[in-house]
Amino acid sequence: MQRPTFETFIGVDLGGGKGKKTAVAVLRKVEGGVRVERYDTGPDGKAWYDAPLLEFLLARADGAVLAIDAPLSLPACVRCQVPVCPGMAACVDPTVVWFRGRDARGPGGAAPAGHKPHFTPYTQRATEVVLHVDGGILPRETLGQGMGPLTARAAHLTRALAARYRLNENLLEVYPKATIWRLFGEKTARSYKKHHAEQSVRLGQILNQLPNLTFGPGQWQEFGVRNDHLFDAVICAYTAWLWANQGWELPTDGRPVFEADGWIWAPPAPA
Hints:
With 271 residues, the chain is of the alpha/beta class. The protein has helices spanning 50-59, 76-79, 94-105, 126-134, 148-160, 176-184, 186-191, 198-206, 221-226, 228-246, 255-261; strands spanning 8-13, 23-30, 33-40, 64-68, 171-174, 213-215, 264-265.
């Protein structure tokens, strides 16, 4: 799949399957960048439940990249098919081996028996460790507190979309906070939500500063400035455009692990 052929960039800020917190943004390629064609929290005033969301995404798959703010793969221990676990120390799964290597590199080496472990490959994925330990950005753990229903919905949608969307080809897992952190720094990333000045940060420090992003007729910036989910959906879609436009690739060091375990796409860290 050749990235220059992509014309549409869809961002989904995914919420629970029975709630009303899912938002979708569609960006179209235009001369010099991308334009927000539409973004909303549901068609015709209704929420983006599974059926309308799948219908919408599948109908727009041609020439599109889909970026979702939710875990699109499961931790190694949850994916494991071995009937009897040999224990972390004896496990030969490449991802668990990778975790052991990172554990040994942590403060003081691997956690002693009876002490809190540094990492848990049944709730975490390698990409989350890289983002946190190497990048200083704390993501949500795939199966951490409160994440189970969202991860389950994302797994269902990934399978339901598999005929048209393939992970890391035209389906991306993204994290809006990581994109903002990499583009505008830690202070902006920490203040664009749940902050007394969040609306001014979203408009003045982010939307107005994103290169090559414009808003189409009727798609006012104010929609996203006032709504967490609409704002994040736009950032998801914009991240997909950056991925395609800049040709991001998986890291060469540990690539087989990230191909199996999943990867959160964000702009490269500054040199």
